Amino acid sequence: SMQIGMLRQKLGSSGIIRLKDVARHIDNLKDLQLQEDVWCYDRYPKQSSSAKVMIKSHHNNKEHECVLWSVNHYLGLNRHPKVIKAAQDAIAVYGTGSGTSAMSGGFCELHKKIEEKVAQLFHKEAGIIFPTGYTANVGAISSLCAGRNSLILIDREVHASILDGCKFSGAKYLPFKHNSVDDLRSKINKYKELYDQIFVIIESVYSMSGDIAPLREIADLKQSNNFFLYVDEAHSFGIYGKNGGGLCLEMGITDSVDMLMTTLSKAAASVGGVVAGNKELCSLIQVSANAYIFQCCVTPSSAATVIEALDIIEKEPIHRETLHDNNRYFREKLLKLNFDLGESISPIVPIYIRSQTIMQNMEKELYERGIFSVSVTYPGVKFNEVRFRFIVSAAHTRQHIDYTCEVLSELGKKYGLIE
Ligand code: PMP
User: Fold this and answer.
1) Which enzyme class (predicted)?
2) Which pTM value belongs to this model?
3) Which domains are present in the chain?
4) ipTM more than 0.90?
5) Does residue 266 have its Cβ closer than 6 Å to ligand 1?
């Protein structure tokens, strides 16, 4: 992320890298790669733990064992023996790959089972599976919102896949202030006479801030205003609600939500994405979303992984309990140290640094001390909002958390973030 941040700084502050700008800076880019202190790579866990990993420094070629805070394996199920066995068994039956798109023959009974299961967990009638969460949003939103006379209102902090779905739809879209029901209400009032239909797209848990949407207030707003509500539950599916059915379920607002979406790459320990709603909406997406029609589907082994993971989420509540315990424990320690965690409450724990220079120095020192997290840099966020993002997992132990807090406390004092 640091490298992309620097590249973006060189290319300009828009936050969007345009191809023509890249072409213009091609020589600089070469320089950038040589000059950039590419200090580490290959940081995905290979050992038996989802929370510890050996990371080799490109800089001095040394290996450091790090506590890992950068992956979304919230429940640590990517290492659950039953999940691994389910994937292996499916490979023995189906082989590797998926061959083609769902429409043209890549779809098998495992995919069907996921669509039904996720819809059931979300308390919706039907579901449609996509190869990733990203393309689920792109495919579903571009289909549902297509039309000249629709307006899409999106929270300012929604994921890039939602933004791309809006762009592909051809409809007009506008952001409203993050989590501001007042701004949303005033935009609805301002525009409702001008458009045939208004779509409101939000996330239940926001991926960079770890805060949650005012779901009940937005559901209430629907009582007096007719709009279509789409909620991305990527960071809450499997974690909140009965059997992991998500935050809308936990808040009791499922009936007010027209379409729910989740990725299968986080709590569900695989890859893929599902959107769920009534049968008519799902049929519409199935026949009109290019991302569904023209893209290969999830491999059978990845599908088998999801089915097993969802079964474990239902039958072994310990993983969810451990995640929430870890989140509470880590968060309390950090707050006691006086770190700035913004409005976050979910297992996404941002630590606001608010200075790019301090963050870059600190990131390196954290790594050298055996802690790996991800820095969220400018222009992904504003300069004064740069932060580390620590993702809590059920796989973290108390020792991992204690050690991380110890080092954070020391470095926080060194860099004047806390007293
Ligand atoms: N929606 C949100 C809110 C996300 O955070 C992400 C992934 N980070 C996605 C969608 C896309 O999911 P995937 O990475 O599984 O394609």
Assistant:
1) transferase
2) 0.91
3) 37-68+318-414 (3.90.1150.10), 80-315 (3.40.640.10)
4) yes
5) no
